Amino acid sequence: MTAPVTVIGAGLAGCEAAWQLAKRGIPVMLHEMKPEKMTPAHHAPLFGELVCSNSLRSDQLENAVGLLKEELRRLDSLILQCADEHRVAAGGALAVDRTAFAQAITDAVTDHPLIEIIPGEVTSLPADGPVIVATGPLTSDALAAAIAARFPDTGYLHFYDAAAPLVTYESVDMDSAYFASRYDKGTPDYINCPMTEEEYLAFWRELTHAKEAPVHGFEDKNVFEGCMPVEVMARRGEQTLCYGPLKPRGLRDPRTGLTPFAVVQLRRDNAEGTVYNLVGFQTHLTWPEQKRVFSMIPALRNAEFVRYGVMHRNTYLNGPKLLDRYYRVKDDPDLIFAGQITGVEGYVESTASGALAAIELARRLLGKAPVDFPQETAIGALALYVSGGSVGDFQPMNVNFGIMPPLGYRVKGKRNKNAVLSQRALEILATLDTE
Description:
There is one protein chain. It contains 12 helices and 17 strands. It is globular, with a radius of gyration of 22 Å. It starts with a strand and ends with a helix. It folds into 2 domains: 5-161 and 315-431, FAD/NAD(P)-binding domain (3-Layer(bba) Sandwich); 166-309, Elongation Factor Tu (Ef-tu), domain 3 (Beta Barrel). The protein is of the alpha+beta class. It has helices at residues 12-22, 64-74, 78-85, 98-111, 141-150, 197-209, 230-234, 287-294, 319-322, 347-365, 378-389, 414-431; strands at 5-8, 28-32, 55-58, 87-88, 93-96, 115-119, 131-133, 157-162, 166-168, 178-180, 190-195, 262-268, 275-278, 305-307, 311-316, 328-329, 332-337.
């Protein structure tokens, strides 16, 4: 048996990395600072806690994140096992009961005989490796400082993102809302809150002038586009929200037969359907302002907010300068990073980075050749983008078909083309020795 590998952080990337190593017979020492020290965005001591949203996004192969999830399933991902076991209805998306999902991850990792849980904050990078640092976007200040000191000349970076508020189902005025999914795809799991033009413009004006909570160092330009606060988006123009999270297209009101001027969507946040998330309403408004402004949405006039939106800083590395395709530090292959700290963006992408980092490390420790996941696969394309595929200033990246090689021949229709790209990826994945 090989010596234990140190994994720091029990978020999705850390738990996935620990699981992939342990299932290959490699012992793991998994460090996690919760519950001894909590971050502002976490609420429970469980591993794998989802902060921003319960949704793991599309589960369809015509979408790149859907492909990435299917690749992870075929790589025996712990995170995808737990997600599939505790999914809740959300149309064509994979959404989970967040508490049951995190509990399942915690139980699986804690009960594995080759994984030792070591509680407490890690404040410095271990001198001896191998070590996988998977501390996520909420890396503690002490460890963040240690990482920054390790890379003093490479532009260690950070950005800000935000979480959306939650409301109770029973407080939503269903006389002013309706269940539907966009274009009637999947099951009608979303609550849709329509707004007239007059209602929308009044809401937009108040949103653009509402009081924001102070966040040290925050500027609109530092927000990752995929997690942009709704008020920042609103300031871009009167109609911007109508082409973003409030887009009404494909959400015809069955009561009137008409398409509303704007629609706010609510997505189930737990299995029981008692709590809903305001889709796309990440925010850093003050809590009283959230209550005041969001209650202007007719269906939410009496909404009970069980969690208000919060703002937090995400920390990430300049991947193209620092990391190779295995998420290893280029000049120190025993120091490996995984999760959003690498510059991948999203829960599924974080999981994928943890899986790839652990699979490739395990093969090295067992004396096997690397897998070298090719760019035609979603998991490989993401790693190759982070390690050198960016042009200009490096920014966090969600998985997308644009970072994968084209087919080389024309397929009519975007969804058809994406389906063929996914088929190609899965066929290639099936030929790889990943054990």
